[in-house]
């Protein structure tokens, strides 16, 4: 992914072509909104098509209006009736919120139709119009399931290897805790070991190297403690190597250890503007531990469309801001909401010269 790039949508045909690349996957049964600043795509936001009886789209309109786009293009993916019902409701809510609508489009079976006129049989989608997105390194996975698979646990031989490594890591932690007289309060050993493990994982990832099974297992055991997670959060940033690191860790650790690295992946993806990846990572964390404190916080940030530079820190008052959230990153990353139905939005990707991706 190259952050120094520009994606534009100068026509409805171009908007249809680039939308999957902005989201990171080809949507189905979805409502997608593209926010435009001039010809530039400023953000993309995805919802599942709502239930037929849904009548309240005010939250959708509020999230979109907050982003400050000049205008939006609505794209519905699916059969005519559910798409048309959603378009009417969302369109009404956006107009009430003062958001101009440039076009309203339905996509199905490789063709698209504009509700504002065009061939009765629709217009063929033109993948060639997305060539610039592909050139810039943007990828559109086949569907959202393929995106979810990126954070799903490994199985087979790898799972057996990780189970054995986790047993060794737990024995190591028990031994260190027994030797530490302050172990009841996490102990000095936990602070020291956690910092060393996080820094070593970052060093290897930055160098393009993978962690061994024992290194991943040890990191997973240590990250169950908030003191270690907070340290890793404070060091977080939008770098691609961090996304690779935490994606690898969340897939390989034992499922009960997945919430913390999933949150670290979500946080890094959020800072990088990859809202889709952030959303599925948070969902993975909440699947393993529904009451996880940090996952719940990130879930609310994504749902509200909060931008990273608007948040000083995810740490208690009195602590310095996380490096990735200082105001000097204001032009480097912007945030996005959730990816589930009419009460939440799914992150897409933004491409803008000199900025990172932004998804809602």
Question: How do the helices and strands line up, and which of them pair or pack?
Answer:
Blueprint: H1 12-23, E1 30-37, E2 40-48, H2 58-66, E3 71-77, H3 80-96, E4 101-108, E5 111-114, E6 123-124, H4 131-135, H5 144-149, H6 156-178, H7 187-206, H8 213-222, H9 226-234, H10 240-252, H11 259-272, H12 275-288, H13 293-304, E7 346-347
Parallel strand pairs: 3-4
Antiparallel strand pairs: 1-2, 1-3, 2-7, 4-5, 5-6
Helix pairs in contact: 2-3, 6-8, 7-8, 7-9, 7-10, 10-11, 11-12, 11-13, 12-13
InterPro entries: DUF4192
Pfam families: DUF4192 (PF13830)
Biased composition (Basic residues): 348-360
Task: Give a structural overview.
- The protein has helices at residues 12-23, 58-66, 80-96, 131-135, 144-149, 156-178, 187-206, 213-222, 226-234, 240-252, 259-272, 275-288, 293-304; strands at residues 30-37, 40-48, 71-77, 101-108, 111-114, 123-124, 346-347.
- Helices cover 46% and strands 11% of the residues.
- It has two domains: 12-145, 3-Layer(aba) Sandwich (Cytidine Deaminase, domain 2), CATH 3.40.140.10; 150-327, no CATH class.
- With 360 residues, it is an alpha+beta fold.
- The longest helix has 23 residues, at 156-178.
Q: Report the sheet-strand fraction.
A: 5-15%
> How many distinct domains?
2
The secondary-structure element order is HEEHEHEEEHHHHHHHHHHE
User: What is the general shape?
Assistant: elongated
Q: So how many helices?
A: 13
Class per helix and strand makeup: alpha+beta
CA(first)-CA(last) distance: 18 Å
Largest sheet: 7 strands, mixed
What integer is the average pLDDT?
Answer: 84
Pfam family, one: DUF4192
Protein name: DUF4192 domain-containing protein
InterPro entries: DUF4192
């Amino acid at each position: 992914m190259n952050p120094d790039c520009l994606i534009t949508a100068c026509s409805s045909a171009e908007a249809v072509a680039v939308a999957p690349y902005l989201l990171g996957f080809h949507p189905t049964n979805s409502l997608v909104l593209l926010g435009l600043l001039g010809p530039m795509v400023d953000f993309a936001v995805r919802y599942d098509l709502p239930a037929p009886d849904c009548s309240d789209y005010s939250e959708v309109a509020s999230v979109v209006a907050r982003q400050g786009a000049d205008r939006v293009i609505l794209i519905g993916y699916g059969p005519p009736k559910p798409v048309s019902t959603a378009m009417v409701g969302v369109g009404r809510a956006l107009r009430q919120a003062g958001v101009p609508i440039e076009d309203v489009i339905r996509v199905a079976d490789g063709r698209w139709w504009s509700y504002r006129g065009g061939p009765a049989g629709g217009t063929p989608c033109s993948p060639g119009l997305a060539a610039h997105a592909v050139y810039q390194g943007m990828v559109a996975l086949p569907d959202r399931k393929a995106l979810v698979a990126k954070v799903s646990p490994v199985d087979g031989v790898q799972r057996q290897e990780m189970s054995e490594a986790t047993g060794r890591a737990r024995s190591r932690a028990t031994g260190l805790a027994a030797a530490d007289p302050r172990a009841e309060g996490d102990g000095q050993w936990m602070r020291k070991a956690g910092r060393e493990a996080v820094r070593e994982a970052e060093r290897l990832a930055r160098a393009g190297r993978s962690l061994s099974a024992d290194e991943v297992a040890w990191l997973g055991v240590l990250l169950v403690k908030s003191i270690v997670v907070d340290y890793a959060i404070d060091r977080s940033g939008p770098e691609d190597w961090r996304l690779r690191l935490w994606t690898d860790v969340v897939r390989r650790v034992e499922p009960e250890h997945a919430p913390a690295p999933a949150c670290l992946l979500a946080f890094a993806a959020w800072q990088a503007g990859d809202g889709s990846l952030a959303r599925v990572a948070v969902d993975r964390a909440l699947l393993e531990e529904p009451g996880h404190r940090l996952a719940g916080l990130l879930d609310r940030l994504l749902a509200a469309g909060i931008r990273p530079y608007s948040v000083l820190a995810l740490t208690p008052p009195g602590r310095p801001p996380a490096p990735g959230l200082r105001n000097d990153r204001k032009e480097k990353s912007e945030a996005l909401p959730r990816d589930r139905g009419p009460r939440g939005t799914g992150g897409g990707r933004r491409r803008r010269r000199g900025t990172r991706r932004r998804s809602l």
